[in-house]
Every structure is written in structure tokens, then in C-alpha cells.
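In response to reviewer comment 3 from the previous cycle, which asked for concrete evidence that the modeling workflow produces usable outputs, we include below a single protein chain processed end to end. The sequence was submitted unchanged, and the resulting C-alpha cells are shown without manual editing.
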Amino acid sequence: MYRIIAAILGLIALAGCAGNEKPTEEPSFYVSMASADARLDANAAASMISQYRQNNGLGAVTIDPELMAAAETQSRAMANKNKLDHDVAAPFGKRVKTSGFDASKAVENIGAGYHTLAEAFSGWRDSPPHRDNMLATGVSKMGIAAVYAPKSKYKVFWTLILAQPDH
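The workflow returned the following C-alpha cells.
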């Protein structure tokens, strides 16, 4: 009898605790970038892309500040001109050279209309040329940016740059 009462009291105590739990925070790769105050979680992006690469037998990538700035410049230029185009700011090769990152190899994915990192990643993964870039051999650094463009039908412009330092 005492065991039954103890079990019931234990269940009541547990039920009371359930109401005090904090709601779980949404994973950053599901957060919409379609707002002025949205901030892309570059570490989550690097982790997601690295895991994808590792699942395909390739090395991880780490965030590089110069490539982050170059990606931001490209996404901002596309947002300002409301145009999805690799050359909107300048041709890719020239942009990499002027970024300050001395690359022996560099590839770029752009996108528009994806509101979350998960959507952008899935879109790139499902497009053969973009998938090939994410699975490029011999790259170890990355930069990524998402820029909100409220007046554009796309709302968000994305740039991912993967590269290898030349040294």
C-alpha cells in the first residue's frame, strides 16, 4: 500500500515539474532570416556543411573572417540590386582576390528565396552543381551570409564561399 501511495505522489510531483520546464529553443538552422534583426549562425552552418562533407568522405571546413566578409558583400550586392547573379558585385575570381583571402581554390554557391539555413542547405544539396561545390575536394575554409531584402520577392539572398588557402 505504501508503495502505491509513494508511486502516486511521485507521479504528482513529476507532473508538477513538467509545467516548469522552459520551452526548447528552435535550432538556429530553422530560424527565418527574413527579418531585419535575423542573424545567421555561421557556426551552425559550418557544422552542417562539415558534417555533410564528412558523411561524403571529405574534410571539415572552418569559418574564415575574410571569406565571411566576401560572402556578406556578395549577398548585400545581390539584395541591393534584387538580382541573383554571381557577378553582381564583381566576377567571383576578382572578388576572392580583393577579399584578402589568398586562395589556391575557391567555389561559390548563391541562392535567393530560402528563408532558413536548412532550406538553403537543402536547395544547394539537391542541385548537382551546388552539391559539387559543397563537396569540393581540397577546401578547408568557408564564409557564408544571408542578407534580408524586404522589398524583394526573394526576401533573403545567400552566399556560401568554400576555399583553400594558398600556402
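Helices lie at 2-18, 42-55, 65-81, 92-98, 117-125, 128-134. We consider this sufficient to address the reviewer's concern, and the full set will be provided in the supplementary archive.
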